Amino acid sequence: MKKISLLGATGSIGIQTLDVIREHPEEFSLAALSAGRNIPLCRKIISEFHPEFVSVKNKEDAEALRAEFPGTVFSYGPDGLQEAAVYYKTDILVNAVLGSVGLSPTLEAIKLGRPVAIANKETLVTAGHLVMEAAKQHGTQIIPVDSEHSAIFQALQGEREKNIERLVVTASGGSFRDRCRNELANVTVKEALNHPNWSMGAKITIDSATMMNKGLEVIEAHWLFSMPYEKISVLLHKESIIHSMVEFHDSSIIAQLGTPDMRVPIQYALSYPDRMPLPSGKRLRLEEIGKLHFAEMDFDRFRCLRFAYEAGKTGGTMPSVMNAANEVAVAAFLEGRIKFLEIEDLIEKALIAHKSSANPDLETIQAADSETRKFVKSLV
């Protein structure tokens, strides 16, 4: 029985992780979890999965839940999030929280040497050098959960790094993939949240529409697979059937295919290096699909992808600034305070205003993050 700590249990990835646990009750159990403000759902999760430790965002919610579930230990806030990450009975941590809040808990969990299944993009984007250095120092395995990185991870099993020519990360194109830029000026939040392929949370769905999601994944891939940006390509692939590919220097390409179902990479991360059945998963039948479509990525159409490559190559605190600016801008769009294309404008202004610090420590990263959030909020 593998015991799991799940950060972000009430989010999209968290809910699908619970689906995997539910499907394999003899293999997995939920030892600890963190949740934000969705207390009704958190309450249901506690009732079904009986975790020993639970952390929520607010003290009042923790106290209310403690009265309802006297057999469970409760905590709250950043300290509680970290306690959930390092819970002593845990065999593997699944980091599925949204935003840069997942960085510190991940770094603490890495020190324990247990596997970390990471779905939190911002942890690697903002501090990939710290995360991977710590993982190497403590012998901690970092297992990607994102479908694209899981695909690359699977394709590289049994392969040698020296033989890799390039990584190819695929992108669906998001909600507005068939629209040109002049058609995006007045798109609504509802339209932006209508992703054609994947079921994801609001923030990630907007990131998919701007292509920032793919930009973050490029930076993640750089750190996860020690690959220079010049050897990481993005390919538009509307069907989301090929999740990513690896091209080797003998011209061979290995790709990982499957239906768009996040439970597959989640389960693979939990069961690695083994594979387990997923009876409820939809099987891929290529004869039913018929055709797959691909197109070159347009960096002028998707400016956020260009920002990500530039920030990644600059390094230092620049990716943290890009990420922080994006989080504030996306939140403002979801709240109806800015237009869709203004997300890009705000990110660009933050990047231009920032002077990057090389090889930043955690405090420097957090300071750059905080300063950028204040700067962008002042522009909204």
Automatic annotation (TrEMBL):
Segments passing through the bilayer: none
Reactions listed under catalytic activity: 2-C-methyl-D-erythritol 4-phosphate + NADP(+) = 1-deoxy-D-xylulose 5-phosphate + NADPH + H(+)
Location of the 1-deoxy-D-xylulose 5-phosphate reductoisomerase C-terminal domain: 142-225
Domain of life: Bacteria
Keyword Flavoprotein (UniProt): no
SUPFAM superfamilies xrefs: 1-deoxy-D-xylulose-5-phosphate reductoisomerase, C-terminal domain (SSF69055), Glyceraldehyde-3-phosphate dehydrogenase-like, C-terminal domain (SSF55347), NAD(P)-binding Rossmann-fold domains (SSF51735)
Binding residues annotated for 1-deoxy-D-xylulose 5-phosphate, in chain numbering: 121, 147-148, 172, 195, 208, 213-214, 217
Binding site for Mn(2+): 146, 148, 217
Function recorded in the entry: Catalyzes the NADPH-dependent rearrangement and reduction of 1-deoxy-D-xylulose-5-phosphate (DXP) to 2-C-methyl-D-erythritol 4-phosphate (MEP).
Protein family (similarity comment): Belongs to the DXR family.
Protein name: 1-deoxy-D-xylulose 5-phosphate reductoisomerase
Organism: Mesobacillus zeae
